[in-house]
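Q: Structure tokens for this one, please.
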Amino acid sequence: MINQRLISLLFVLFFVNNVSAQDIYNSQKDIINLPDGLSTIVENKNNKAIIAIHGYYPPYWMRIHHEWVRPFNMLVEKNYRTFFYKYDWNRCPSDVGKEFAVIITNLVSENPDVEEWDIVGHSMGGIVTMFANKSFTPNHIVQFNIIATPLYIDTNKVPWSSKNYYERKFDRCPENLNSFNNEFENGFPNHLIRWQNIKEFDSQFKKYDFNPYDREIKDSVIFQFPDSLNNERVGHTASLYFSILEIIR
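A: Here is the predicted structure, written as tokens:
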């Protein structure tokens, strides 16, 4: 009887633990509760790893970090070694990028068993990622991915809802998208992969009178998404999930 009870208890604990692991991010609130700085999403000894970084959230945005719920749950399910970097998105991307480069350097140094690192930046997080790439010592095991990230902005043509944000980022921050002219022309120090949406299907850019993806970057690789995948529209948010899904494949 004791053995049967013990077996039953172990089974229940095993079931609960597995359910908890799969449902670890029920909503964006679980990600909001993560501390600022670097957090471990999936810890194991796999020789491939992802370091993810989020984008910008306007003051009126109610679903902060919601776009990471499905990707993180998928990475938990796949047991893929994953880290997440949270930062103050009101700061200049260049300043955050330089700090992020130090975080990446330390993490790579502390985990010599990892043979491949993918840095994944979404939206404005991709701009931060480019600044990190710009100041990161060349390393063949580290590649930088930018997802749904603008490469060109005409502040005179953006909708009024975005104008204040871009003007602040361009006027207040001495280093901005215009600071990459050298890297765009000559290439970044480390491998750069661009995951881009069709502008008309990207909720953030579809109303723009110009295409913010329309910029060449030497030696970069472009993955151009179609309008839909698996019967799902590929927009600003969904492209994050589909990009990470392809990266871990």
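A few notes: The chain has one domain: 26-248. Residues 228 and 234 are 5 Å apart (CA to CA).
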